[in-house]
Amino acid sequence: MRYIFIFLLLLQFTTLSPPSALAQRVPRPAVAPQDTPRVAAQDTVTLQAPKGDIETTIKYSAKDSIQFEVDRKVVHLYGDAKIDYGDMKLEAAYIEINYDNNTLTATTLTDSTGQEIGTPVFSQGAETYAAKRIAYNYKTRKGRISEVVTQQGEGYIHSEVVKRSPNNEFYGLHNKYTTCNLEHPHFYISAGKIKAIPNDKVMSGPFNLVIGDIPTPLGFLFGLFPTPKSKRSSGVIVPSYGENARGFFLNNGGYYFAWNDYVGTKLTGDIYSLGGYNLDVSTDYVKRYAYRGNFRFTYDFLKNDEADVESSRSTDNILSQLPPTQRTFWVYWSHTPVTKPGRGSFSASVNAGSQLHQRVNYNGTAQYLAPTFNSHVSYQKTIPNSPFSYTIKASQGQSTQTGTMNFVLPDLNFSMSQVGLAELFSDAPATNKWYEKFTLTYNVRASNTISNIQPARTSTNFPVLDTSPADTIEVNFGNLQRLWESGQKTAIHSFGIGLGNYKIMRYLNFSPSVNYNETWLDEKYSFTFNPDSQRVDVDTTGFGRVYQYSAGASLNTTIYGTVYVKGEKVEAIRHLIRPSISYSYRPDFGDERFGFYQRTLVGTDPNTNLPRYQNLGRFRTGLPSTGLNSSLSFSLDNSLEMKVKAKNDSTDAKFEKVSLIDNLRLSSSYNFAADSLKLAPIQLSFYTKLFKMVNMNFSSTFNPYQTDSAGRNIDKYIFDARKLKLARLTNASLNLTASLNPEAFRSETTLPANLPSLVPDQDPVLPQYVDFKIPWTLNLNYTFYYTRGLGVASRNNLTQTVGIDGSLNVTEKWKVTYTSTYDISNQNISYANVQIYRDLHCWDMSIGWTPFGLLRGYNLTINARSSLLQDLKLTKRSNSVYGY
After folding, report:
1. What is the distance between the alpha carbons of residues 552 and 550, in angstroms, rounded to a whole number?
2. Does residue 642 or residue 212 have the better pLDDT?
3. Is 408:449 a contact under the CB 8 Å cutoff?
4. Rounded average pLDDT over 199-217
5. DSSP class of residue 361?
6. CB-based contact 141:170 (threshold 8 Å)
7. Which of 821, 823, 722 lies closest to 780, judged by CA?
8. Cβ within 8 Å of residue 878, ≥6 positions away
9. What are the tens digits of pLDDT across the range 16-49?
10. pLDDT per residue as tens digits for the range 640-670
11. Which is nearest to 764 in space by CA: 882, 630, 603, 666?
12. Does the structural domain 1-140 have CATH classification 2.60.450.10?
């Protein structure tokens, strides 16, 4: 009775009509005519069932027709059939609903050409399956799917038969697991049985790798592939393997801890067959709209017993290239805030550790060759509605070559941006008085500079007879107080006073200024000559104060000159001249009245037996230079441009500007207070861009004075001896760079020289990114440097180099990049590198060769493109050196 009731209910919402042509072509089930009423399909039929096996409303539709078999309790849907049942959806060319056994069956149909159409697609929640045949029990929520392809994370599973359990897990038979998204994948992992837990993992039994339908012996007894989709998850990081100077290794294996959506920690390590190991802890964190950062600590134990034997360093043993057994560490910390107006921001960039750590743990050319590493931690804030801001900072720098470590702790900075002097002393509105143009800027920096290497007293600061040696302080917790006490504590005050800008004769800009700097120091010295020991004794007298001031003014203008040509292509040529003259005055702070220097007896001249005196600085840092300065500086800047007819304009009205000379600069200075050689060397520089793609930079220096046989300047102008010659060229440099690529011919903008395909990643011969969309690039550069010998016996020095780099798409899938530098002066190739890339759709292949230099060698890598199978790769490399 229940199904009769359902059937009668459906009849109220349907209209009888003949079946379509498609329905007539499809074979119908063999049933008695009197028991098989035919009902034409509506767009959507809604069936609300009484309480029983059906839990919710079933919505279904068919584009062609719907047939009911009441006695068998079966409904047939033909042509673009669709069913919605709760969160489950099913689409196919043909669907059968069987109310007797609570099943849905979907298959394809064959059209008049013999082609199968209407592949069944089953979806429930976020899961979607496409297959040749789908059978689903909507009561038990179990299913059986034949010839199915489903996506799990980044991977695709091709299965002959899949059974689906009520908890959404499914089990596959005769499977192919791949990250290739083609119907016939280029590669896959062949496994007889697979179990997939959606949004979690895919597990398999014994499997092997198949490439190009060719089975390989690569495989394992079981497989585990994580497939997280909706959130971060913890999991095992599978290590890679190989061999280097430290032996056979397992590299970068460990575990990832996903604490929450904002913090994650990766714990990995390396182990080597010769006894060494490496531990690495890295934590990423982020807070939306506030900050993001990464903290990483790495510890390395290098075991190299053979390096302790001196004779081994003279052999070809690769271990002789590494340092002796030692333990090293390194700390990275990067913290980047999101700047908000009126709020302070904390930032950090820490890159510090043991001296040899970066070389032993070789990670790329830049890391290996870096001479210094710098770190800082700072907090900065601008006080709202005021010109004041402050910064609290701590910084550190270290040299990997000398082992020197310098710290600035603390480093406090307080500054006031430019304000009008009238605003500081009065709230009255501005009246455009001349003195209202005066401005003031102020900055104070208080710091404590610490170094683990204290210089000897015979250094530049103390050129006296005290021969105390340099002192090296080991950086550890036990020496913190000693390091702090050895620091140089200073406070530097800087005042800048602007006296306004004024127009003179309508076209000249006149700008006077005054500057004052004062430095407070924690130590001041007094020198006394001891005749008995024939040395200078140095006494510390405590707090010291050093100051200096200067005044100056500048005068500049701009001159335009235009010549109208009125030609077919050229409209006019304009010359722009910017002359500038400035004057500065600074007293001689080496005078005894300032007390910054002390004229001290330092012994007796061995040639004349007369007393010898020296002007010694009484402070370690912050000393102003000696000598009176009264200088007049001048410069002349020129630019030349041409107004031509636009290429894309057919009328005579529109023109565009073309630069002929971007800047031609001539500059020098003249010190009126100097006793000799008052005119400084003359500087001439030139910059322009040719044909919108060639950059030209030229700079040179000219000496206006005559020289003696040793190459020293004498106080006589060259012009006095040779009336037709004003100065002598002492050095010159020329740099030409050209970037040729398709974009350069289409627009004025050219691609940058550091294209991603030409910037090496951590591997020096494996680039991070290759863009196959750019058909070709070509970058050329030429460098010329000339230095003239100063003395009669000296020679002129000439250096020339030419370089070429670029890329070429040989085919749509093959790309070659190249880089080479040739030293013309020495007639040798200083650097060369060739890379060949192959786009294998779901695989990448690269071949690199560096025939010259420190990192000469080759590299061959074939790897799966998906990050899910990042460890599925083949690497073969040979480098001349490793690490140290």
Report:
1. 7
2. 642
3. yes
4. 80
5. S
6. no
7. 821
8. 857, 858, 859
9. 333 333 333 334 433 333 344 444 444 444 444 4
10. 998 887 766 555 557 788 888 899 999 999 9
11. 882
12. yes
* CB contact set of 115 (below 8 Å; sequence gap of 6+): none
Give the CA distances from residue 344 to residues 290, 338, 379, 547, 742, in Å, rounded to whole numbers and listed in that order. 11, 10, 7, 32, 46
- Domain range annotation of the chain: 1-140, 142-229, 231-370, 501-680, 685-884
Characterize the bridge pairing of strands 109-110 and 116-117.
Answer: antiparallel
Q: How far is the C-alpha of 590 from the C-alpha of 414, rounded, in Å?
A: 30
Q: How wide is the angle at C-alpha 182 spanned by C-alphas 203 and 846, nearest 5°?
A: 90
Dump strand ranges (E) for 708-756.
713-717, 728-740
Question: What are the residues whose beta carbons fall under 8 Å from the beta carbon of 344, sequence distance 6 or more?
Answer: 379, 380, 381
CA distance linking residue 535 with residue 155, whole number of Å = 80
Counting Cβ atoms within 10 Å, is residue 853 exposed (0-12), middle (13-18) or buried (19+)? middle
Beta-carbon count within 10 A of 175 CB = 27
Q: What is the DSSP string of 806-838?
A: EEEESSSSEEEEEEEEEETTTTEEEEEEEEEEE
Strands 235-237 and 240-244 come out as unpaired
Q: Find, among 727, 733, 726, the residue nearest to 800 by Cα.
A: 733
Query: Per the omega criterion (within 30 degrees of 0), is the bond before 606 cis?
Result: no
Cβ(645)–Cβ(631) under 8 Å?
Answer: no
Q: Spell out a b/e string for 591-623, using b for 16 or more CB atoms within 10 Å of the CB, else e.
A: eeeeebbeebebbeeeeeeeeeeeebbbbbebb
The dihedral region occupied by 9, where left means phi > 0, alpha psi between -120 and 50, and beta the remainder, is alpha
- Residue whose structure tokens are 């970068």: 252
User: What is the DSSP pairing of strand 828-839 with strand 843-850?
Assistant: antiparallel
Residue with tokens 């006589």: 716
Q: For residue 629, which amino acid is it?
A: N
- Pairing type for strands 857-864 and 873-879 reads antiparallel
Confidence band (pLDDT; 50, 70, 90) for 398?
confident
pTM score over 0.70: no
Residues in contact with 177: Cβ distance below 8 Å, sequence separation at least 6, in sequence order: 155, 156, 157, 158, 188, 189, 191, 194, 202, 204, 207, 223, 225
Residue 132 parent element (H or E): strand 127-137
> Which helix (H) or strand (E) element contains residue 721?
helix 718-721
Amino acid of residue 506: R
Q: What's the DSSP call for residue 679?
A: B
User: How many Cβ atoms from other residues are within 10 Å of residue 801's Cβ?
Assistant: 18
State the Cα–Cα distance between residues 416 and 424, nearest whole angstrom.
12
- AA letter at 867: S
Query: Strands 345-353, 372-382: parallel, antiparallel or unpaired by DSSP?
Result: antiparallel
On the 0-12 / 13-18 / 19+ scale of CB atoms within 10 A, 247 is middle
Task: Indicate the SS3 state at residue 353.
Answer: strand
The DSSP 8-state label assigned to residue 623 in this structure reads: P
Q: How far apart are CA 438 and CA 736, in angstroms?
A: 45
What are the phi and psi torsion angles at 436 (to 5°)? -75, -10
Q: Per-residue pLDDT tens for 566-623?
A: 777 888 899 999 999 999 999 999 888 888 888 888 777 777 778 887 778 887 777 8
Q: Which amino acid appears at position 253 of this protein?
A: G
Q: Does the pLDDT of residue 712 top 50, yes or no?
A: yes
Asked if residue 77 lies in contact with residue 88, where contact means CB atoms within 8 angstroms, the answer is no
Regarding beta strands 38-39 and 65-69, do their DSSP bridges make them parallel or antiparallel, or are they unpaired? antiparallel
